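call fold(seq) -> tokens
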Amino acid sequence: MTTPEPSLRHLMRMLDDTGLFEHAIGALPRRSHGYCTDDAGRALAVAVRAGDDAHALLLAERCLAFLAHAHQGQGRFHIRMGFDRRWTVDRVSEDACGRAIFGIGVAAAVAPWAHVRREARRLFREAAAFRSTFPRATAPAVIGAAELLRTEPGNPEATSMVHDALAGLPRLSRDERWPWPEERLRYANAVIAEALIAGGDVIDDGASVEEGLRLLGWLVQTERLGDHFSFTPTGGRGPDDPRPGFDQQPIEAGALADACARAFDVTGDEIWIEPLLLAAGWFQGRNDVGVSMFDPDTGGGFDGLRAEGVNENQGAESTIALVTTLQQAGRVGALTERTSQPEAARASSS
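ret:
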């Protein structure tokens, strides 16, 4: 199965001069629901990783500007803005703060445009005081900090964030039947494993890397059903829950793809390539219902997998999950192809 090329087309459809609309009606922005900080952070990351995509710079600039405006200080961000450009009265979401810092950290590390890197690094310094007791808030922030440390070793704010976070992130339970550190799988589960791997790698904490790899290996095995992934549905999954479960969300595929790509980058072990490609295959119809989870005409990802088919709305979160999965599959595939060429050349000359 050939992996499609990632495209920012639908994210540009969801973008205006203020930010990225959170929800969609089919393929059209649902303007009445406004904009969300979570999506700006995650879209910033896919924009700066988008290579030569003609839309990448504009998407990155708009998302970074939105995050700078949303920041209230000390790593606390407004979560939502209405179409009237007023912040809503929602209380601060620590998950949203963590995802904002994730995108800012990735942009500060790898944005191909100097002005975006510079402004992202300034904003990261301002937001790096963020700390949370919630794993799914802490984990994406750690991943963003780890990305920055890979390109700027010794960055004090990022180093402090990683050390503090690794001391508090959950670890393997002692229950051999259910080693996951929570009673139930919830949402974006693989982000916890990726944070342990990424954070442990940049501060030479081999024990954290090993814990993350073991958690990820168990999660891959648990989420797999035969030749495809049967992801945890919105209601979560416990050890005795029947399978498959619905409504399955694209964020699970995206988080697993990111974590498997991270595991490959850190270890060089090709065992992580197959689950990464299976995550991409989930979007292509290799799932419990056998239906495509994206629209090739728009480049958008569908909002959920149901027993009767798909939720045809193409919201920002779902499309970001699609794009990050395809980006990681394409990047890792290209890396392994390049490393295999010298071996093939030697074999043909012998």
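The two ends are 32 Å apart (CA to CA).
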